[in-house]
Design goal:
The structure holds 2 protein chains of 2 kinds.
Chain A (H helix, E strand, L loop, with lengths): L2 H20 L3 H26 L7 H19 L3 H25 L2 H21 L1 H4 L5 E2 L4 E2 L2 E2 L2 H24 L1 H11 L1 H6 L4 H27 L1 E2 L6 H14 L4 H19 L1 H24 L5 H20 L7 H15 L3 H10 L31 E12 L2 E12 L3 E5 L6 H8 L7 E6 L2 E2 L5 H6 L2 E3 L12 H8 L8 H6 L2 H20 L15 H13 L5 E5 L7 H16 L3 E5 L3 H7 L2 E6 L2 E6 L1 H6 L1 H8 L2 H4 L4
Parallel strand pairs in A: 7-12, 7-13, 10-11, 11-12
Antiparallel strand pairs in A: 1-4, 2-3, 5-6, 5-8, 8-9, 13-14
Chain B lengths: L1 H31 L6 H17 L5 H29 L3 H23 L4 E2 L9 E3 L2 E3 L1 H23 L1 H11 L1 H6 L4 H23 L4 E2 L3 H16 L4 H21 L7 H13 L14
Antiparallel strand pairs in B: 1-4, 2-3
The chains are: A alpha/beta, B mainly alpha.
Chain lengths: 646, 292
Amino acid sequence: MTRRSLVLAVVGLVFVGGLPLAVHNPYYIHLVETIMIYAIVLFGLDIVVGYTGQVSLGHAGLFGIGAYAAGVLVMKLAAPLWLTLPAAIAVTAGFGALLALPALRVTGPYLAMVTLAFGTIIQILINEMTFLTEGPLGIKIAKPSLFGVKLGEQEFYWVVLLMMVLSLVFVHRVLRSQLGRAFEALRGSPVASDCMGVSVYRYKVYAFVISAGLAGLAGALYGYSEQYISPNTYNFELTVLFLLAIIMGGRKTRTGALLGATIIVLLPKLLDDVELFRYVAVTIAVVVTAGAVVWVQRGKTTWRAAAIPVAGSIALAGVSFVLETMTDWRLSIFGLITLFVVYYLQDGIVGFVRGVLDLRPRAEAFDEARVAPVIGDAIANAARDMPDELLSARKVLMQFGGLKALNDVDLVVRRGAIHGLIGPNGSGKSTMMNVLTGIYVPTAGQIEFAGHSVVGRSSADIALSGIARTFQNVQLFGEMTALQNVMVGLHHSFASNLAEVALHLPRYRREDAQATARALALLQFVGLADLSHEEARNLPYGKQRLLEIARALALDPQLLLLDEPAAGLTAPDIKVLLAIIAKIRDHGITVILIEHHMDVVMAICDTVSVLDFGQKIAEGQPAAVQADAKVIEAYLGGQAVSGQAA
Amino acid sequence: MQILTQLVFSGIALGMIYAVIAFGYQLTFATSDTLNFGQGDALMLGALVGLTLVEKLGLNYWLMIPLVCVFGVLQGALVERIGVRPALKIKSEFGWIMSTIALGIIFKNVAENVWGRDDLKFPSPLPESPLHFLGANILPMEILVVVGAVGMMLAVEVFNRRSIYGRAVVATFNDRDAAKLMGINTGLVITFSYALSSLSAAFAGVLIAPLTLTGATMGAVLGLKAFAVAIIGGLTSGMGIILGGVILGIAETTTGFYISTGYKDVPGLVLLLIVLAVKPAGLFGKTAIKKV
């Protein structure tokens, strides 16, 4: 945290904390309290929506579970606050894990529907399980006591503030840690996450559980704050409202969540006051129109594209003068705002402001002094005690419907070798890679790596046992910086748990410093040191390929699979690549290299296997393979050699 | 036993409604890999527009149906233009999910303001005295629902298989980019699929309205349960949704009778969660191979 943001945070805290002393109207205190409670939900929702990129329509349900967990404990057992809050968090986190189960199998619209169904079921259960929840009647909750003192509106406000600040710090620290990087990696490329040893399954569950825990905490606080809970609060509209707040405020920023919470709490109040709403609507219309004019003049958009928001905002202002009361049209206005945000404000208000002011999100601040120096060139030496046949695949069959992408292929890779795998397009090279890394489970055959079978194990498990890979179609985590990409590869080097991360305990700090240093050194090794804070998607194609290699090396692999690393590289870049591969070999790491550039293959491979139509047709020294009649036939067509091609 | 037969018959009628709405999901999913999260609201609007035509304009139920279908076509096209097309252009999955949800909320809110918040009775076009069959009472309207639903789905299937326009739809389904290169206006095909989808929803709305009450909130849960049917049956299987619909319909009527009407929505939703957790492609769908 820089000095400036620290000062800002303290000023903000003093302002919000001092509010009840300055303003005695309980209405306003309650309003700010609600904003803070919603902010806690949104911090959690942002983990799922912003970081892992999943649409959750179940968070109103989770919020409700938190409220009812506290409510039932208070009603049935007269439980104190220090018991109800942890209980609400625990119960809701449990439901979050339950919700994550289908989320493991599906994404996108399916997941949205699943979470929607989940939310609906929760509402039905709350309504029907009257023996526990009193059903539609609802539960009355009095303000809690703490240390024998009954909390008033003011004191409870401070409790909420404390919880909000704690949640903020917790979420912020978690998202900056290896956990946050894992969440973000899931969104960027699930396949690559798995192949970096970051189990997509496990971290999706973590994300949902943490997110649900926060929703539970907020729900419990909400129950105390309202002093009454009933099933109808936790409905579909609330869930959409939460989502709207996140995208409107801005994904992946805590400021955005706070802003979003403020908007969704204040907007209904605004709509209740039609006079005030008219002023606001006119202001919005003027601002949007002016903004559009400036935008068009700067050439950032066209009149056609700008026409819709301008017409919409003017129409909204017009409508506000026609209608006597806005309250009934509240949901329509929320709907319109959602449409507007989805199409014109995708990065939210925070993102928009950053874009206009040309501010880039601050690069992850790290102390140069804190970063331990790395001796040598950051690549871990491969273990010496591995069997000589590091990898042996026997009679591997991979069948997709009637197509045999791999047909009884044998492949033996010797420890320390660079093993080339070549063949025409569609010959099964990449399928082989996917089988070796557990993305596909072979239909038949055995694969042994370092003496253990690979078949049937998960990609993440295989990756952690020492097989790292790059991808033919680059699979980087686009929205993350180069440094963060490599640090995802270093995920295995972290042993610290959630508590250590949240409290910044010594072990976490040490691991984080070491990982940062390793990652920087790895970037330096592939020549990307000065681009470490650039987002991966902004790198040129050739650099992206090098970054993938650095990320794979971070896994400390015994075996490195390179899938067409030279594709799209310029001649000088290829020279660099060759040097890199040679150095990797010098560390004892075994390499399987798929490549179409024959000069690359011939220059560095010790052995070459050739695939064609899913079958191995030749194997041996590069020169021998190059002269093999079958290989020439496969590449150039058969007539010249064998008369009749199949 | 008599009661069970009764529950089965009502379940089948209900299930056919789910199947028709699920069919609407399939249509848009086929052409654009998108779904209208406001499908239930399209059904609700169809029912309420139908009610107005019958009650306020004194139109005959049978004459009202084609008008409601036209309304459905327009409504669907509107949803596609505002909610889906811009999102497809920027390739934003989050975009179309949120915008169809937003449009659904707007439609519901408008309906609340136009038709009020109370549920309304929809006059039945057929006699309301039940027929007796296998010892159970069957409303003539229930038979109409089954016949209408099956007829509707058959008509669209025949259209897709026989006519040149239908082939354009199928081609777009198979490969959107290739279809575009072959000179098919895929944008128009997608709009058309949304129009058809909302048409079937609106039609389902006027079919079910005489059996239940009509109101602004009738769509939400129906739409969600129809999605459950679409998932159980598989988003690509025509027979699957009819079977899925019937399974769900019967599960629901029996739950409502033997446990509590409050819980009647639960089996469908739980089934949805289970199917998605175990076999996401649905019981009758094909599993797609992920490519790396």
